[in-house]
Amino acid sequence: MKFLAIRQLGWMIYKEFNQMWANRSAMVIIVAMPVIQLLVLPFAVNFEVRKVRLGIRDYDHSSGSRALLEKFCHHDYFQTVILNPGTSLGSLPDPVTVDAVLNIPRHFGREVLQGGPVSIFTSIDAVDAVKASIISGYLNEMISQFAVQYRPHIGTSTPGDIQINTSIWYNPQKDYKLFIVPGIIAFLVTMVSIYLIAMSVVREKQSGTARQLQMVPLRIHTILLGKLLSIWLVCMLIFLLGILISGLVYGIKIKGDFSLLLLFTGWYLIPVLLLGFILASYCENQFQSMLLSFFFVLIFILTGGLFSPISSMPTAVQSLANLNPVHLLIEVMRMVVLKGGTVIEATPYFLSCLYQVVVLLLICFIRYRKS
User: Fold this and answer.
1) Model-level pTM?
2) pLDDT mean across residues, the chain
3) Domain count, the chain
């Protein structure tokens, strides 16, 4: 009986791969889409702000103010525009519009040399709030570095001077690709798995083969397992392809155990595929399945912690994010790739997936009997 069940499962997987291969154009899109997105998105989703147009008004005209001006002029991130003290931003021609204005006050150089408090006023265009906060951080860091380098008495025990030595963990170069690429791989694997299972189930409903499967002497779990396993294998192949691209193109090295990452991804795909199966049971055609899948994938992206930290979201949204399967894979990917996480650290995420599998599997059996 066990051999017969395994043989039936093998034939179900064979049938699913035959159906995928019959629609070769769709399979090319399914495989090519993650590859192209993985090659493009990390460069598009860039948390670095370069070519900041910085207007500088120098009211001091001292050696100190000129030294600060030269520091900004020779930095790769800034494009400086020298403004006359009486120039208003509204009088600037359109090609000379600036992102921020730095006002160097009178007696700036003297007060810096004396070690007293110095106030510098900056104005930043905050139409793009994220860009404005990054520019503000750039300006603060540049001015702080200048003060440390320019004051001749820095390094001695003068009252009021505090030197901060910072140690950057896990990503010393602060390379955003190390942070964003694992999250993009998690998102792409999730998107492809939901789309594939939803389209596969709905295609069988439209063609009538779903009714035929119900009449053959196969148990529900054999049919469900055969369909899920075939798409599971395709998604694992896409995941391995993403890891290969991240290493060859972006130079990302996995600090932790790769087998742990592979094991969790395989385990994580089970609730995601079950969710796609449930969504497909409510759809009558592939267009409906694509729209419904896109709706859930969009929510997964926004609440998964890919672009913004979950801790900064409202409490209600944080509760929703904890139920988000994409959040689990993103956290484990970053934990293993950047921190070298262990099985003990990943255990809570395995358990969260287990809870989702139990609930979704029960819903799957109920929906399959009804539909």
Assistant:
1) 0.75
2) 79
3) 2
